[in-house]
Amino acid sequence: MPDNWTYVAAAYALAAVVFGAYWLRLGRRERELATLAAPRGNRGAARTEAGAVRTDSNAGRPDHTSRSQAPSTTAHPRPEPASRPPLQP
Amino acid sequence: MTTLLGWLSGLGLVAGLVMGFGVAPREVTQGNVQRIMYLHVPAVWVAYLAFMAGFVASIAYLARRRPGADRLAHAACEVGTLFLGVNIATGAIWGKPTWGTWWTWDARLTSVAVVFVMFLAYLLLRGAIDDHDRAGRYAAVLGIVATLNIPLVHFSVYWWRTLHQPPSLLKPGSSTMPSVILTALLVNFAALALLGAYFIARRARLLAAEEEALA
User: Could you give the C-alpha distances from B39 to A50, B35, B108, B155, B175, in angstroms and in order?
Assistant: First the structure.
């Protein structure tokens, strides 16, 4: 019977591609999670408005009870009141 | 521990290639195409082991509802499906020059395809249900039912007339395989088992990190 090396090479190459792709997928997902976790980790000891250090499990989450004072960088920039044109009657 | 498993599996794969291509002789009847066996057979053994681990973890999850058991079941079944896919694909590649066909609907091939599809459904089910606990319970039941089909796959070559050969090793009595071929097969099995354990450990750790990120 002929040796059929092409089939042997195809079988091992296929396995290498499948296992290699899975290995790369695991690594990529781990890196994604690490980048997601990094900012949360930095905010783990976020200070509240009263100055106390919050170390509870909600420390990394946005505080919805107080509105952010920082200007929004999304959407259209809003002009300052002094620079707004007067309302037309 | 996971890193050590990774390095050991890498070394094992190199040793397996050396054994399969350098030490094991050319088979008399089939020629060198028989060397696909060193990949095809260990892949299905590792898949069976992974599914058994998933089976035990699924029962443990249904009994105790521990998230760690659910993660282990998920990781083991995913990795088992990967290895079973490699087994089916390499079997088709081996079948073309030896049987003259990529695929035939005989009992062994059909039963293994059914198990493969059931575990694909297992993975789809996990992704389709948002409620984590409910997904874990339903998947555990499906994983247990799918694993119970594995004896059917193994004994199909005895119970029905099949094109696939009966087992050479996992059978009653001593093996008729030459010792050098048997050694090469076992080295490759050890290498793929280490690779499977490495993948399962990494995937389970990743699932824990994903749950933590979503919490």
Answer: 64, 8, 18, 21, 19
Distance from CA of A20 to the nearest CA of B (A): 11
Q: What is the reported pLDDT for B203?
A: 96
pLDDT reading at B105 higher than 70: yes
| pLDDT band with cut points at 50, 70 and 90 for residue A63 | very low
Q: Do B94 and A11 touch (CB under 8 A)?
A: yes
- Give the 3-state secondary structure of A15-75: HHHHHHHHHHHHHHHHHHHHHHHHHHHHHHHCECCCCCECCCCCCCCCCCCCCCCCCCCCC
DSSP state at residue B23: I
Residues B62-89, mean pLDDT to the nearest whole number? 95
Shortest CB distance from A1 goes to which of B30, B43, B90? B30
Tell me the backbone φ, ψ of residue A75, rounded to 5 degrees.
60, -155
Report percent pLDDT > 90 for chain B. 76
Mean pLDDT, residues A43-56 taken together: 44
pLDDT single digits (tens) B193-203: 999 999 999 99
Nearest to B181 by CA among B37, B27, B24, B45: B24
Q: At what angle do helices B37-64 and B150-159 cross, to 10 degrees?
A: 130
Question: Each residue of A9-24: pLDDT tens digit?
Answer: 999 999 999 999 999 9
Q: 3-class SS at B202? A: helix
SS3 assignment, position B173? coil
> How distant is the Cα of A57 from the closest Cα of chain B, in angstroms?
10
How many Cα atoms within 13 Å fall on the side-chain side of residue A6? 3
